[in-house]
Every structure is written in structure tokens, then in C-alpha cells.
Amino acid sequence: MPQALDEISVMIVDSQPSMRSQLRAMLGICGITNIALSVSAGAAIRKLRESTYDIILCEYHLGEGQDGQHLLEDLRNHQVIPLSTIFIMITGESAYERVVSAVELAPNDYVLKPFSADILLDRLAKALTKRDVFLPTYKRIEAGNLLDAIEVCKRDEVENPAYLIDFLRLRAELYLATSQTDLSQEIYQRVVEMRAVPWAKLGLAKTQYLQKRYDEAQEGFNGLIAENANYMDAYDWLARTREAMGELESAQETLQAAIRVSPHTTRRLRKLGEVSNELGDHTTAAKTMAEVVRKGKYSDFRDPEDHVQLIKAHLGQGDTKSASAAIHDLERSMNGLPKTPLCKALSSALVATKNGDTAAAAAALDEAAKHSPSDLGTSTGLKKDLARVCIEHKRDDQAAGVIMDIMRHAADDSAVEDIKNLLVDLGRPELGEELATQIRGEVKNLMSEGAQLAAKGDYTGAVMQMRQAATRLPGNTNVLFNAALALLKYIENVEWEASYAQEARNYIERVRKQDPGNERLKLLTNYFHALLKKNGVRPGDL
Description:
TPR repeats: 232-265
Mean pLDDT: 90
Number of strands: 5
Organism: Uliginosibacterium sediminicola
Domain Response regulatory: 9-128
Distance between the termini: 34 Å
Strand content: under 5%
Keywords: DNA-binding, Phosphoprotein, TPR repeat, Transcription, Transcription regulation, Two-component regulatory system
Radius of gyration: 25 Å
Protein name: Tetratricopeptide repeat protein
């Protein structure tokens, strides 16, 4: 055992008291006594937000609500646990081997029942040994130093050939995270040629997707599904690819096929509901979103916007009674969440509009106007719904404010065009043209002024100008990119300022999340890390 037994901390997640007691006894026999118990996924998440554990032992079947795989995905996707936490699945199903081979976020290991304390200890020892090998890379990733993490990864894969495939997978993911898609593609292709590992094929197709080579990506995802009908991540990426190609009906069919194989994943159900509403298939949307809302009662990551999608589906069916009931459920079950008041106001306006009650709709829109969609982190879809109902009730000023907010958060001109098309559909093309011209003028003026100040050597002025631009246009990747660049130019030409470096890193990360295939990110990231090294600063110190 690479770590002293009395230092190892373990969380057991199991809904059955007898199994929790049995696992606790086994760990005690092994000499591990620092143990926490959780009876459900929700209880586990709440504890894991407060404390860190070396190991999580989780039963695959957790009763009503989430299963162990869904819990793992929530923990990883929402970064509740660090990379160093080992997640081991416990299951009585021998078929789980096929399940775990077909998921992108796999547990570190899994143990099939029945098993002895010796077998459990052996698995824990192997998992901890492997964790320690990867720990130097994990620390750099969590410190935000992805370029150094890549270098450490390259070094350690040579020193630890037994874990070569795992290191290659991690390095390919790091290349994707730093927008070095050409290098990630090389690794995935290498692994495919070595042993045709499914995750490498998935990674290769993901790389093609990020490079906007959608036809090739679609072919890759289809091939994976043909090889293994249980490869759920391939379905998700195929649906995403088809949506990017504008093939919504095909995306819906893909999601429906995935749900037939794995019917319980909330995020997939949510996506099917959204796509179905957009297609006008309100029957499918209502059925799907009702299930999402039901499952939300068991999740720490429930979202009031799910109720809005359900209400839209009911209204699309002409069922105002069910829509009104869903509003009451929204108010009751989502009480206290920041987005709930706005979601309730919008939903009330939609129902009142369907009922022809203009006074109630106006009152609801007045209530909606009290809340800022951007401050609440609402989706673009919800903002569009709010803009639609405002236009329908001839509240142009309120609609313009919402639309300008969408445009200011738009990543680029193509996203602005999408909003213009919405206004064409609503019969207000002139409003779309007017607002699009205004937003493009804002971008052009702010960027031009920032560039002129930097060219004159006024790096302080350039920083202030680009900060203002990033505040006014928080979703525009070009603005965010140049805001980071202005801060780095200040550091290079004036003086080291830690807060500027942290701010620049935040802008870089925002660009990476919005446009992961942006090839310029590689140069900007290299520039950032070169300045850190020049000033003797480690990324983890920021």
C-alpha cells in the first residue's frame, strides 16, 4: 500500500444499510478507519463539497434517482472532487464491464460482487499506486498550468511505461484543452493504430468536431455506435455534431436512440426535450421534460429552466391546465433558487398569452423586467423565449434590452446572425438589423480604441479600454482574447502585476470554454506561460 492505512480516507455511497456495514467492516479489517457514509447521491455530493476523500466506494444501484455512474459524471463535470480522488464502482452485474468500457467518464476501477476484504485491499492498493504516478500532472492541471502538465505527462509516460496508454489519453485531452487539436489528433490516431481503443476513436472524432470537420466527425461517431451500441458518449457527440450541421431531426433521432439504451441520464433527457420543443414535437418534449423535472427532485444540480421547457411543451399541445400546474410546481419545488422568480414570470407570461389574457401577461412581463437574465446565468434559449413574448406584446424596449444582452454574449458574427433570424421570424427584421449594427459598432469601436492605445505605448489605457469591452461584451471571443492580450502586453512592457496575470488567465479560460477549437489560443497560452516563467511565477501561485 503506497499510503499509510490510517491516513487513507474513504467515503462509502450505498443505499443499503447492510452493504454499508459490510464495506465498513472490510475496510476496518484492512486497517482503514477514516470512513464516511452516504445513503444517496445527493447526500454524497453535499459531503464532498465540504470534505475531500482519497477514495469513494460507490454502489452502482443507488435506488430511486441517480445511479453510481450518473453520480460520477456529476462529480467530475461539476468539479466537486479533485482529480486525485479515486472513484471505485461496486456492482453485482458482470455486464458492467461493457458499460464501463463505453463511457467517457469512467471510474478508476470497479469491483464485482461478491468479493473479500483481501480483494478490496488489493484493488485499493493498485488504484492508489496509479494515482500517485499521475499526481504531479494532476496538481499542475488543478493549478491551471496545462502546458507544464503536458510536459510532466510526457516525462512520466516514459518513466512509467505500464501506464503509457493512460498517459497518452490524458495528454491528448490536455492538447484539446489548450486548443492544440493537431497534436491531440496525432495521439488519438496513434492509439487507434496501436490497439483500436474506443476512447481514442472517440477522441479523434471529437477533435474533428472541434475543427468543424463535421462530416468526418459524424462518420467516426457512427462507427463507434456500430461497434458498440452501448457507447453512450458517442451518441451524445453525434447528436451535438448533427445539431451543429443544422440537422435537428437527425439530432433528435440520435438522442432518442441513446435514451432507449440508457434511459436515465438527466442531461441527455434535457437535451432531447429542448431539441423536441425547437422542432415543434411537443408531445415528445412534454414526456421527456416531465421526466427531467421529476428527476430534478433528486439532484443537487436541478434547474428551474427545466420547468420552462415543460411548460412550453404543454402550451405547444394546447394544454394550459397542465402548464399552469407546472408553474405551481416550479414555484414550490424550486423555491429559493436564483433563477426561479424569472422562470416563473416568463412561464406566467407564456400561459397568459396562450389564454389571451393580456393584462396578466403584462403583469408577468413587468415582473420579469425586475430580473437580469445575465446576472442569473440563464441560457440563451430562455432569453430568446423572453424576447419572443415581449415582441408579441409590443414591448419593444424590453425586447431590445434582452436581445442586446444576447448579442453582447454572442461569441461571433454568426451567433448575432442567429438572433437576427429570430427577429425575422417574429416579423421585426428592422429591429434585428438595428441592434446588430449597434452591437457590431460597439465591438469595432472598443477594439479599435484599445489597439490604438497599445500602439501608442499606453498599456494602462489599453487594459482599461479592453476591460470595459469585456464587461460590455462578455461573450464575444474576439473581445475576450484581446482583453487577455492587453493585460499580458502590460505585464511584458510595464511591470509584473499578479492580479493582471490572474485576470488574463480568466479571459483565456472563458475563450477556451466558448471556442475550444480556437487555434489562436495556443499562441496566447504560450505567451502567458512565457511571461510567468520570465517573472519566476508558478501558475499555482496566482
